Every structure is written in structure tokens, then in C-alpha cells.
Amino acid sequence: MLTLKTGRLVLRSWCDADLAPFADLNADPSVMAHFPGTLCCDVSNALARAIQGDLADYGFGLWAAEVPGIAPFIGFVGICEPDFEPPFRGDARSSRAGHRGSVHTRGW
Questions:
Q1: Confidence at residue 89, expressed as pLDDT on a 0 to 100 scale
Q2: Are the CB atoms for 79 and 100 separated by under 8 Å?
Q3: What is the pTM of this model?
């Protein structure tokens, strides 16, 4: 898996050490204000593993983000194709027929 580095940030594959801070983020109502709801630890862990699986399977998705020497996990960033129809997406841009969508959006 490709790791992307800048002078201040690293985007990388997920690891087991990311599960607890990711679960903390997913359990925080303020963090999850723009997602359908908070997630329990088990669902958060399953979501992290699905995200990692998508990265391995497709070569793109949501990377874990860290600030080297300061914070080993600060969240995630990346691209994915949603498996739902967001309200801002018009008919001309509707999902392709038969597309399964990204696994990692199902938890949100």
C-alpha cells in the first residue's frame, strides 16, 4: 500500500493501533454531527477493517492520517464513491446501475 508523506502529514494504511482512537472519534456526537449517528466500538472496528480492505482491494479509499512525532492517528482522509444518494447529488449524476458502492460508507 502506498504511503503519502508531506512535511507535516502522513497518509497510510490502517493498523491495529488506529482502532481505539477511531472508535473514540466515532463515539463522539460532535465529531459525528454530519454522519447518520455515532458508532459503538464493535461497529467502528468493523468499519476500520472494511476501510482497510477497500484500500487493499481497490488501491484507493480512506487513508489513516497521522502527524509524525506528534499524533499517530488524527483521523482519515481520502476518496470513495458513496453507496447512498446524498441530497445534493442531482439526477444527472446518479449512481451507475449495478455499482455496489464502497463498503466503508455502510456504517455511516
A1: 66
A2: no
A3: 0.75
CA dist., res. 18 & res. 6, Å (int): 20
Count of other CB atoms within 10 angstroms of residue 74: 15
> How far apart, in whole angstroms, are the C-alpha atoms of residue 23 and residue 35?
14
CA distance 82 to 95: 9
As to burial, measured by CB atoms within 10 angstroms (0-12 exposed, 13-18 middle, 19+ buried), residue 22 is: buried
H or E, element range at 14: none
Element holding 13 (H helix, E strand): none
pLDDT tens-place string over residues 1-17 = 789 999 999 999 999 99
